[in-house]
């Protein structure tokens, strides 16, 4: 395939492929997906096994370095990350400049972009120790930045990280804790969030990961590339879908809970009405992540004693869609985002914040792809071609003659 691609490029022909439906932009050894069979593997390990047995930090290590860590490697990795969770005090002041009701995704992206200005010592993409340092800085500081974006939106003071806690526990404490009150991390909540982060950690050449690679292909630094990836994830057709699903479910409830009526609006292709959390460019079968999340949603809501009518609406919606020819013919199944919002809501996160949680989960995948891209001798600057459809040539007209 790679050789054929090179040969075609040398002939001068251009492949017209809007949305890159059939274009391989790179080779990669990180994540394998078989969309027809509903298979997802990180570095060869089935997602089901990782979800059952692993932790988010271990999976991050696996994605970035290619192998599961030994006990010693994992301890070293954890310690390094714990040492870098603090932010420069000047960086904290950035948050003062944003409106209180700003969406946390652009706030997070701006803060990550600003890391390039604070850590100028680790920007060279070809200096391996510095890439390593940027990697650790990102994994350690993005949860702190995300928690501060939340604190800013609710008008509460920022908490310093407590490095005796694990990554997810620390993030939960910085998000929901208050300075004067002790905050006990609920182990069920921490476990649920850790699992969701594992399930989101990578998904090969999706829109945000391709963005990270494209920006990085110009040899832009890791912080700059990740900041762009966060903005690609913001869109409702990508990571923003998790918030959009919850808004859709709330809309159905507000309209009296008539699921069949909503499904009809989707089938009639009413402008702007899609079944959010359904469909996927690659999966033409049940998304394996959605399968795990559906079970988790039930368990977590039960454990937390949350009785959310929106979960019933979601299940009815799924049943209705899966037995309807419109969705069957188009192979539309629930994707990762269909049930996540309900869990995030039960854990206490506001709807606007859901996509930030996706970004926290996807971070190690973006880093792994950027590093693979920068080390690959076959990497060239990303520069797609086009089919020009404008005017052929015309002569300039003076403004008085137009
Ligand atoms: N609801 C209703 N119809 C849909 C949906 C949906 N969610 N998704 C696709 N379709 C229909 C399209 O209208 C089209 O029908 P047509 O052939 O009659 O025109 C057909 O299915 C194919 O859809 P495309 O838009 O061509 O599929 P594409 O691969 O470009 O889009 C996408 C994939 C963006 C994920 C789409 O399914 C979608 O918009 N889903 C809703 C948003 C969503 O959940 N996004 C999260 C994706 S997962 C992730 O990023 C983490």
Automatic annotation (TrEMBL):
GO CC annotations on file: cytoplasm
Gene3D superfamilies reported for this sequence: 2.20.28.60, Citrate Synthase, domain 1, Cytochrome P450-Terp, domain 2
Residues passing through the membrane, by range: none
Keywords from the named record: Acyltransferase, Transferase, Tricarboxylic acid cycle
Pathway as given in its UniProt record: Carbohydrate metabolism; tricarboxylic acid cycle; isocitrate from oxaloacetate: step 1/2
Reaction catalyzed: oxaloacetate + acetyl-CoA + H2O = citrate + CoA + H(+)
InterPro entries attached to this UniProt entry: Citrate_synth-like_lrg_a-sub (IPR016142), Citrate_synth-like_sm_a-sub (IPR016143), Citrate_synthase (IPR002020), Citrate_synthase_AS (IPR019810), Citrate_synthase_bac-typ (IPR024176), Citrate_synthase_sf (IPR036969), Citrate_synthase_typ-I (IPR010953)
Active site residues of this protein: 280, 337
GO biological processes: tricarboxylic acid cycle
Origin: domain of life: Bacteria
Pfam family, one: Citrate_synt
GO molecular function: citrate synthase activity
UniProt family annotation: Belongs to the citrate synthase family.
Name this polypeptide is given: Citrate synthase
Natural source organism: Amycolatopsis alkalitolerans
């Amino acid at each position: 395939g790679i050789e054929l691609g090179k040969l075609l490029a040398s002939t001068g022909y251009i492949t017209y492929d809007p949305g890159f439906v059939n274009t391989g932009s790179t080779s990669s050894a990180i994540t394998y997906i078989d969309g027809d069979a509903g298979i997802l593997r990180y570095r060869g390990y089935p997602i089901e096994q990782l979800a059952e047995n692993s932790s988010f930090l271990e999976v991050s290590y696996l994605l970035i370095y290619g192998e599961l860590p030994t006990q010693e490697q994992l301890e070293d990795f954890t310690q390094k990350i714990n040492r870098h969770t603090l932010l420069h005090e000047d960086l904290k002041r950035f948050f003062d400049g944003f409106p209180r009701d700003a969406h946390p995704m652009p706030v997070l992206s701006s803060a990550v972009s600003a890391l390039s200005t604070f850590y100028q010592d680790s920007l060279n993409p070809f200096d391996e120790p510095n890439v390593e340092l940027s990697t650790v800085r990102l994994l350690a500081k993005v949860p702190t930045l995300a928690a501060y974006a939340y604190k800013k939106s609710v008008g509460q003071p920022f908490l310093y990280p407590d490095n005796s806690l694990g990554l997810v526990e620390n993030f939960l404490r910085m998000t929901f804790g208050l300075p004067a009150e002790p905050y006990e991390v609920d182990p069920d909540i921490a476990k649920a969030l850790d699992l969701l982060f594992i399930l989101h950690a990578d998904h090969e050449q999706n829109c945000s990961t391709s963005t990270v690679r494209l920006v990085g292909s110009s040899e832009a630094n890791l912080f700059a590339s990740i900041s762009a990836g966060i903005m690609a994830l913001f869109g409702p057709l990508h990571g923003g879908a998790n918030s959009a699903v919850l808004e859709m479910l709330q809309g159905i409830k507000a309209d009296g809970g008539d699921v069949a009526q909503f499904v009809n609006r989707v089938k009639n292709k009413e402008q702007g009405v899609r079944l959010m959390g359904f469909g996927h460019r690659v999966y033409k079968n049940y998304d394996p992540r959605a399968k795990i999340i559906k079970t988790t949603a039930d368990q977590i809501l039960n454990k937390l004693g949350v009785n959310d009518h929106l979960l019933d609406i979601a299940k009815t919606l799924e049943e209705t869609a899966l037995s309807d020819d419109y969705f069957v013919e188009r192979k539309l199944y629930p994707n990762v985002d269909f049930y996540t919002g309900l869990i995030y809501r039960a854990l206490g996160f506001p709807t606007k914040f859901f996509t930030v949680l996706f970004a926290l989960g996807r971070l190690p995948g973006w880093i792994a792809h950027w590093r693979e891209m920068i080390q690959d001798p076959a990497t060239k600057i990303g520069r797609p071609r086009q089919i020009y459809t404008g005017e052929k040539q015309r002569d300039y007209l003076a403004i008085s003659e137009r």
